């Protein structure tokens, strides 16, 4: 038992000694760390003070620089203001000198005017004295002398006028043949034929509406394939027994129409079959275009055309101009040119050839940024046509200078074929509006009682009040209305304006 107590005491004493030793070691270590931390804090403090001083110095330098820059700008502005003030002072002094000079010149002009007036009075006195002396010497007054002088001038003017008339008549006899040809070129109007009006849509008729579902196909695949193959729009709407084909290219519309016809007849309508039929129909239409061009050239007696020109002539069958079929228009123009050339003693074959090709630029496949007449002249030149034919084609709308007599002939015949009544279609609303605008334009003038648009708008008759407008004023009114129509309205051909002024006396016998 005492040994155990001794061991316990030893253990307790060891623990106490260990605790005291640990405490002393911890205290020594903590004091060393504290001193080290204080030293590091002192170093950091000194570094921060140095950085703050450096920043303060940099900011002060920057502030000083800004102050110096502001002072320099102020000095520059003051210099500019001083310079402008000097310029203003200089201009003011110049203006003052100019005003002084102007006042001096004004005074000089007034003095000169007074001198001129004084001299004019002296001249009038001298003229009056000279006139009195002449009257006393001649025994006639000034009025009698004026009358004699006027009579003499009238006789001289009549003599000169008669001489001028005789010279004009002689010159007219010499140039009568040339002037007659010009009049014939401007006025001949021959040949009338049926005209086919082309639209931007074609209608394909079907036997029953069940076919529409087969044309559309499952989820519209058939109609999409047909539109992609032909390049047109297929409109399947509520119109009974009809499918609308819409597109600006009439050749593509025709291909789509013929393809639909074959597909509906065959009954097999699916994308692969559609592509096969469209390819086949496209070849057929191309062959028909070439055949139409050859047949047209043979019918008109135009030989030796380049194959590409023949193809372009055939394409005219599917084109239209303001509702007038282009091929029919070209045939009419060619026949008119031949008739007119024969009347004038020119070559009718060349004229017919130029008339046939005059609108070839409208069917050109390469859409160049040129007027169709100029483009047609280049196409003809490209495919070996003679220079006079090329010039007639290129100049029929005055885009180029006319170099031969064929050019005005083609121009006149083109206008005759396009401007004759019924050749080109006009929308009814537009037509009625143009007639109303004509009548309302004439009614806007004072003194007009009633207006009538006659002959499809080619003549305008204006009835005026006899008590409001004189006979002389009717001519002025007719000219004014014609000038205003030319400036404000768009119309084909020409419009005749007739102003009627009449006096009616009405009584009744009872």
Number of domains in the coordinates? 5
Portion of residues within helices:
55-70%
Indicate the overall shape: flat
Number of strands: 8
Instruction: Assess the beta-strand content as a share of residues.
Output: 5-15%
End-to-end distance, in Å?
A: 181 Å
Describe the structure.
The structure is a single chain. This protein has 510 residues and is mainly alpha-helical. The protein folds into 5 domains: 37-133; 146-176; 196-285, Ribosomal Protein S8, Chain: A, domain 1 (2-Layer Sandwich); 320-425, Hypothetical protein af1432, CATH 1.10.3210.10; 428-501, Alpha-Beta Plaits (2-Layer Sandwich), CATH 3.30.70.1350. The chain has 15 helices and 8 strands. It has helices spanning 2-138, 142-174, 176-187, 210-216, 221-230, 250-266, 271-300, 307-315, 326-344, 348-357, 372-382, 387-394, 406-419, 428-443, 471-488; strands spanning 201-205, 233-235, 242-246, 320-321, 324-325, 448-454, 459-464, 496-501. Strands 1-3-2 form a 3-stranded antiparallel sheet, covered by helices on one side. A 3-stranded mixed sheet has the order 6-7-8, with helices on one face. Helix 7 (271-300) packs across helix 8 (307-315), helix 10 (348-357) packs across helix 12 (387-394) and helix 12 crosses helix 13 (406-419). The chain starts with a helix and ends in a 9-residue tail after the last strand.
């Amino acid at each position: 038992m005492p040994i155990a107590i001794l061991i316990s005491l030893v253990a307790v004493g060891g623990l106490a000694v260990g605790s005291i030793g640990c405490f002393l070691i911890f205290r020594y270590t903590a004091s060393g760390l504290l001193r080290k931390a204080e030293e590091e804090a002192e170093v950091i403090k000194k570094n921060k003070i140095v950085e703050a001083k450096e920043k303060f110095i940099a900011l002060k330098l920057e502030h000083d620089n800004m102050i110096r820059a502001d002072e320099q700008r102020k000095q520059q502005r003051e210099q500019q203001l001083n310079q402008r003030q000097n310029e203003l002072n200089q201009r003011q002094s110049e203006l003052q000198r100019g005003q002084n000079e102007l006042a001096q010149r004004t005074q000089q002009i007034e003095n000169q005017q007074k001198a001129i007036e004084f001299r004019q009075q002296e001249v009038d006195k001298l003229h009056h004295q000279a006139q009195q002396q002449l009257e006393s010497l001649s025994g006639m007054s000034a009025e009698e002398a004026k009358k004699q002088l006027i009579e003499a001038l009238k006789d001289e003017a009549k003599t000169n006028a008669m001489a001028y008339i005789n010279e004009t008549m002689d010159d007219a006899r010499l140039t009568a043949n040339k002037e007659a040809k010009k009049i014939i070129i401007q006025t001949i109007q021959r040949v009338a034929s049926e005209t086919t009006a082309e639209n931007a849509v074609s209608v394909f008729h079907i036997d029953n509406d069940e076919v529409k579902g087969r044309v559309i196909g499952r989820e519209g695949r058939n109609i999409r394939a047909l539109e992609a193959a032909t390049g047109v729009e297929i409109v399947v709407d509520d119109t009974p027994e009809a499918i609308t084909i819409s597109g600006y290219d009439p050749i593509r519309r025709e291909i789509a129409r013929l393809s639909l016809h074959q597909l509906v007849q065959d009954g097999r309508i699916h994308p692969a079959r559609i592509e096969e039929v469209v390819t086949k129909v496209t070849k057929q239409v191309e062959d028909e275009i070439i055949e139409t061009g050859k047949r047209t050239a043979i019918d008109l007696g135009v030989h030796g055309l380049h194959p590409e020109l023949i193809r372009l002539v055939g394409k005219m069958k599917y084109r239209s101009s303001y509702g007038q079929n282009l091929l029919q228009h070209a045939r009419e123009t060619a026949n008119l040119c031949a008739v007119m050339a024969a009347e004038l003693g020119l070559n009718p074959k060349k004229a017919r050839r130029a008339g046939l090709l005059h609108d070839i630029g409208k069917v050109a496949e390469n859409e160049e940024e040129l007027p169709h007449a100029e483009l047609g002249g280049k196409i003809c030149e490209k495919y070996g046509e003679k220079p006079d034919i090329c010039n007639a084609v290129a100049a029929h709308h005055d885009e180029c200078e006319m170099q031969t007599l064929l050019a005005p002939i083609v121009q006149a015949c083109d206008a005759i074929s396009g401007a004759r009544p019924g050749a080109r279609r006009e929308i009814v609303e537009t037509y009625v509006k143009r007639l109303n605008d004509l009548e309302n334009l004439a009614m806007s003038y004072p003194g007009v009682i009633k207006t009538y648009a006659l002959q499809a708008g080619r003549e305008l008759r204006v009835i005026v009040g006899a008590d409001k407008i004189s006979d002389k004023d009717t001519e002025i009114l007719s000219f004014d209305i014609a000038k205003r129509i030319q400036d404000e309205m768009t119309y084909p051909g020409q419009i005749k304006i007739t102003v009627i002024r009449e006096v009616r006396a009405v009584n009744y016998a009872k």
